[in-house]
Amino acid sequence: MKNSGFTVVELLITLALGAILLFIGIPSFKETSSSSNMISSSNEMVGAFNYARMEAVKRGNTVFLGQRDGSSWTGGLVVWIDADADSSFDTGEELRLWEPLKSGSTVVSSNSRTSFVFKASGEVNNADVLKLCDDRSGEQGRQIEILISGAIFAEKVTCG
Given its phi and psi angles, is residue 122 left (phi above 0), alpha (psi -120 to 50 degrees) or beta? Predict the structure, then answer.
């Protein structure tokens, strides 16, 4: 009578090969995951800018987009209508809030802007470029360009 199972040696060889494949694959998966998070964060920011522009046109009124926490673009975004005309966000003025970006992310405005104003025509008060990077040195980040016309573009950029 013949046994139809695996020997201990065959099982150990299979486990060793599996461990080697995991050892090789996990760093690659981590890199893919980080790149995916970068693209997701960039798309969220572009979506927020497009939302603010659309709301300004739809409402025929000025709409603001700025830093939710008031100190950093990574602390989340807020789109609001300035009901009291003080050019700053106050509770109750928000149209939509975005959660903070993943930890380790940085966003730098080339003109040190903390907010943007979209006019009823869809134009923005100031053109700017936001550079989104994470804690991986020398990796590809995303650059979000906001044109005075209100058009928003995102593209790859090398982070330093």
Answer: left
pTM: 0.80
Q: Is residue 122 part of a domain?
A: yes
The whole-angstrom separation of Cα 97 and Cα 60 is 21
In a domain, 106, yes or no: yes
- The letter for the amino acid at 23 is F
Q: Token pair of 156, please? A: 């790859």
- Residue 20 maps to a domain: no
> 22 — phi, psi (to 5°)?
-65, -40
- The helices-and-strands tally (H runs, E runs) of the chain is 1, 8
Q: How far apart are CA 158 and CA 99, in angstroms?
A: 25
> Residue 130 belongs to what domain range?
40-158
Report d(CA 66, CA 78) in Å as an integer.
6
Q: With respect to residue 151, please indicate whether it lies within any of the assigned structural domains.
A: yes
Dump pLDDT digits (tens) for 93-104.
999 999 998 877
Question: Which CATH number goes with the domain that contains 83?
Answer: 3.55.40.10
